[in-house]
């Protein structure tokens, strides 16, 4: 990263560190919207980090935005910051103006299909999206929907336009709401043909790409906690980190983390983190698997203490357990990669990996 | 957390050019039926292949021209290595010499050793074995008891090495020996020597492996004379030298591509319409593989910059060989085909070959138990 980028990330890190404490996280667990934290994120320009300067954003490179998402996840920032970053960029790329406030994305679940039907002055939406991050609390939802011919559209939906949605929570107690779009009328200006690359698979790769970066931040936090604890907790007269059994568990976890990071870093090469769905598929598969392993090791190191609300480990591990399943669990992406490989044949396996240019795993 | 560095690296255009070149060579090898990829790997010893690879310029690639090298970058070499592995090329004769012994001699050997040996390695005519393990010193390498005592114009070596792959058909071993009695610092007093296997006082006894192959040997040294200029580095530098050598040994694609040909045969056998389970497991293999490839190329980049990332290399080997070990265990459950040593079916043969060799993946070059100790030290736990 360039010097300027390093400063941007350090500043954001300080902001997260200052604002995100146990009380904020506990309040978020109780379903409260962290309004003052969101205001601080907006003051720092973070929601528009990925929007080009010419379009009114900050215009940071994908690698810097990924670092910001990782740091936010490291501190368990309990807000849809990453969702807003990517939604803002996609909407601007589709020709829309910069969106105000927090923006969430729908659908999340690969089985949820939303549709648009044109009417006189705009379109009518239909369908239900499950597990939408902060769907009730975010003022705007960016929806991907298809028309009868399969063509994709991005739709800006204000929460005021929706019928009461059902608040739901993931295992991290983060809002993951059930949203009903049946009969929602949108003006022409709020519906835009989706950029071409979204036609393949909608928001899946973009959503997965942000969860990948978040898992890296979350895993780093868990390992930080576990290494500190292993060096402090004394049993049998010495820190438990001196025992080979503990050392080896943590070494294995560090291996998963390093391998996951390598695949997550690969996403820096695409402008919006999620453009290369083959790389996303690999990263979401590898990071999801690593997240489970790292969380398990870090809990084991912490013993009973890690299973309490007194130690903050759970804020990170519960998020890892949720993030690995959102926008496609490992199996969803692995199957796509596997089918792509099989379609290319045995002798095609290696060239597909080594020479990969513009290949996609979209079905 | 003290994170390990695996900076992303994009292979430069000259490396991709090299890929075309090595593929053309390997395509030609296979078109002429010079080896059977489903039964071979980087450990397959085939001097004819090594000579042809050398003629095509694929051995000693990074070394100076004056020693027969090609003055290519580590990244060009990385590409050649991974292409050889992907093609199942039988590079076993030159592999060790090219991967670690040659670079070790180039960096720390005497001028005479460089001039005498490196051009022959680069010509595909001179092969090396690793003289580290001993009957009473395996993972605990600093406990070696082989002794080298100073004499006129050189050293006299006495002792024994074991698990010495290919000792019976290589020209030299790089032997780690004690040049001073063990003291408080057990890493002190060790030195590395280039020992000619044809020297007087070298006796080699075969040890067959469980696959029925003869790779392992036990090697005895009885008053074996080694000339002064066949020492690597200075007396007492042995531990530093040997750990530096292991950075070259541990991080390459050969630590996660040993059974890539089994995956190729699996995909062939499964065909273009896999079941959900087959697709998921194949996709998972590819995700693991892609991660390792990025980590390994990142280390090739560090080596190119002259760094010696010892702990990172240990981590790549630990993650990579765990993956190699897992492949046959999962593959065998994806198809109702039993492994066979001599069935005509190439998948079945590849599975048999890998099953019988897999235990060695997590032993050669350092066990996970040792590697994880190094990683833990890097994490600040030791």
> In the CATH scheme, what's the topology name of the largest domain in chain A?
Butyryl-CoA Dehydrogenase, subunit A, domain 2
> Biggest β-sheet of chain B, characterized?
4 strands, mixed
Tally of separate domains of chain A: 2
Q: What class do helices, strands and sheet pairing of chain B give?
A: alpha+beta
According to DSSP, the number of beta strands of chain A is 11
| CATH H-tier superfamily of the largest domain in chain B | Butyryl-CoA Dehydrogenase, subunit A, domain 3
Which term fits the overall shape of chain A? globular
CATH-scheme architecture of the largest domain in chain B: Up-down Bundle
Gyration radius from CA atoms of chain A, angstroms: 21 Å
So how many helices of chain B? Answer: 11
Which CATH C-level class of the largest domain in chain A is it? Mainly Beta
Strand order of the largest sheet of chain B: 1-4-5-8
Question: What is the strand and helix layout of this fold?
Answer:
The complex is a heterodimer of chains A (363) and B (382).
Chain A (H helix, E strand, L loop, with lengths): L2 H17 L2 H8 L5 H9 L18 H13 L6 H13 L9 E4 L8 E4 L3 E5 L1 E6 L6 E7 L5 E7 L17 E5 L3 E4 L3 E3 L4 H4 L2 H29 L1 E2 L2 E2 L4 H22 L11 H26 L10 H11 L6 H15 L4 H6 L9
Helix pairs in contact in A: 1-4, 4-7, 7-8, 7-9, 7-10, 8-9, 9-10, 9-11
Chain B lengths: L12 H19 L15 H9 L18 H13 L8 H14 L2 H12 L5 E4 L15 E5 L2 E9 L9 E7 L11 E7 L5 E7 L5 E14 L3 E2 L5 H13 L9 H11 L5 H29 L5 H22 L14 H16 L6 H11 L4
Parallel strand pairs in B: 1-4
Antiparallel strand pairs in B: 2-3, 3-7, 4-5, 5-8, 6-7
Helix pairs in contact in B: 1-3, 4-5, 4-6, 6-9, 7-10, 8-9, 9-10, 9-11
List keywords for this structure.
heterodimer; A: 363 residues; alpha+beta; Butyryl-CoA Dehydrogenase, subunit A, domain 2; Butyryl-CoA Dehydrogenase, subunit A, domain 3; 2 domains; 4-stranded mixed β-sheet; 3-stranded antiparallel β-sheet; 12 helices; 11 strands; globular; B: 382 residues; Butyryl-Coa Dehydrogenase, subunit A, domain 1; 3 domains; 4-stranded antiparallel β-sheet; 11 helices; 8 strands
